[in-house]
Design brief:
The complex is a heterodimer of chains A (about 325) and B (about 450). Chain A is mainly alpha-helical. Chain A has helices at about 1-10, 10-15, 20-50, 55-75, 80-100, 110-130, 165-185, 185-195, 200-205, 210-235, 240-245, 250-255, 260-280, 290-305; strands spanning about 150-155, 155-160. Chain A has one domain (about 1-305): ABC transporter involved in vitamin B12 uptake, BtuC. Chain A contains 14 helices and two strands; from the N terminus they run H-H-H-H-H-H-E-E-H-H-H-H-H-H-H-H. The longest helix of chain A is centred in the N-terminal third of the chain and has 32 residues, at about 20-50. The N and C termini of chain A lie far apart (about 50 Å). Chain B has a seven-stranded mixed beta sheet, with helices on both faces. In chain B, strand 12 and strand 13 (about 400) form a beta hairpin. The chains are: A mainly alpha (about 325), B alpha/beta (about 450).
Chain lengths: ~325, ~450
Amino acid sequence: MDILYSIFVDPFMQMGSAPDLLVQTLWEGFVGGILYALIALGFVLIFKASGVFNFAQGIMVVFAALTLVGLYEKGVPAFLALAITIGVMFVLAYAIERVVLRPLVNQPDIILFMATFGLTYLLIGLGEAIFGGNPKVMIAEQLYLPKGAIDLKILGGVVTLQKIDIAAAIIALVMIGALSLFFQYTRIGRALRAVADSHKAALSVGISLNQIWVIVWFIAGVVALITGIMWGARSDVSFALQVVALKALPVLILGGFTSVPGAIVGGLIIGIGEKIGEFYWGPLVGGATESWLAYCIALVFLMFRPQGLFGERIIERI
Amino acid sequence: MKKSALALGLVVGALVGTPALHEASAQESVYVPLFTYRTGPFAGSGIPIADGMRDYLEMLNQRDGGIGGVKIVIEECETGYDTKKGVECYEAVKDKKPVLTNPYSTGITLQLIPRASVDKIPMLSMAYGLSASADGTVFPWIFNPPATYWDGASVMVTYMAQQLGGFDKLKGKKLGLIHLDAPFGKEPIPLLENLAKEYGFELKLYPIAAADMQNQSGTWLAIRRDRPDFIYNQGFGAMNPTAVKEAIRNNYPVGKMVGVWWAGGDDDARGGGAEAKGYKALSFNQTGVDYPVMQDIIKHVFDKKLSKVENRNRIGEALYNRGVYNSMLIAEAIRTAQRITGKKVVDGADVRRGLEGLDITEARLKELGMEGFAAPVRVTCADHNGHNKAFVAEWDGGKYVKASDWIEPIKNKVRPLIEAAAKEYASSNTGWPKRSEACDKPS
């Protein structure tokens, strides 16, 4: 009886008795969810354009952030370091297209997937060789990212909103909006959507697959950089971040691998779901639920929508 | 034909020459493998420790020609703090006749404990690993001086009592344990549960999965709800700087947060900026380079570009100096083994006796250039730890400074639990050998 009370009654009593904490939990989940959505967006862009599940997206987040901080530590001014890092991500995208993707055209998807595994370990080694394994402090202040917090006295308590989190949410939303407009209304964006629909059809109307791949991997690299800056400002820039980036997997399962809105909605559901779960129900199972709860949420959704919330329904005629 | 004969000659020469070479190097050296992690999510803690361990042994080679006239062969094996890789490292080094192993991970230590007595290679798990292995009557091949995690947890409780005005003031207070959800992080829980019952405080557990080391906001919401009076941080690697930052974000007073000695790295606090001032961690070694031993490392290793440290300022950081301390124990164990056995080149069995005879007094610390750097340590046949004192170090914004007196662990509570846990370990591991190794008379 006690256990039923703890599961079905007590958490809701807590929500009612301390609504400020509920709002705080929702906010933390929202911010976490936005960051998950950003990571998932990188996966979605590449999957749409090339049908590759880019396992290296997590390490791209770390590599981009490390490059930025590493350059700054070597005396390069912050905004110049930012510009150079964007350049590095372009060179990386170009190199990936030339060295990894182009030779593997027409190979089974699993081969391309395995190639991104190789890319992951290459970037880990490269990052450690160039910048070392020590964690680094993100140069948030030098990039004029806000510091401090806003305390809202509401609901009989205090809800604290970190300014960096507000900035992260705004930047992520602006970025997602800009990317949506880019894909919808620009020539390159339309070409990318054409490639996503059918490689062969796109080629037949003169779209350069190679060019599109470079652009998409570059955009995914920029998304990775922004994610790295935001997440690095919340903790530190270290190789442990690539593990956090894998939290995008349940987001993708939930939102669908080909949907930008799916990445956003999926990110928010996972972010808010895992924080609420950990805070109200976590103590019942000894805590540390966030590492697996996200997958449980995704699996429950899969039972009802195997293609994800916004994914394309696959119908194959036999 | 001539080429074939030459090739054959080279092969035969290599086959014949190799054992001779091994024998020669075995006669003149002792092999000390260091399991380290300079890569991966725990590299932030692993790099300074590895540098400190390596540089001290290298300094002995450069300054003294090794230990007792015998060169130290130092070899690092990268584990990435991964238990599987640690076991692979062990398999790779054990045939090279190491005088001891030094796993630098509680997970790896737990895997290797049953092998030590079989392979006759003693294991030094300095202030980590299985607390129960401090009982030398059950674990003759395992050593974990100068203090166990249970000692550390009891020092934390004593410190909390000192801050509150006495042990009687602990009643009704809350101590939060934020810990890595891994064997290392869980190790102090039994002792803290026991002390919580004894002194009437409430223990709240906040586990952090390794995958979420940099994603702790959910846990810190719970801490904000529970408002523990003190937090004990049994974290490692990327978990620590994130925990310090989260404490700041959640307006938890960092001065009430005390890390175990592995959660007291300079990088752990540095990322928190000025607001991290006051963060605390237990320690059993001093920081800085104002000790003759540190000056010798700089002179004989760093200045000769034999160190892997690139920035001179990192020599003297808390975890670097802990690595130095670790290697001092290794070197003193080898030296003691040489004295006990009368041999120059000692083996694993000899160094086991050396570890059991460790008695590092104030006078010896002075000879080693470590006066005031650490407290004396004594290991005995029955007590493989010593349950030595620790102190609370505080981050002043640029470095850790000693912020308390040396605090004794609550030995009368810790030791009986260790002996009971050791018995339990032996009985639950069928066929666990009874100690057959004789004890040397203390010198």
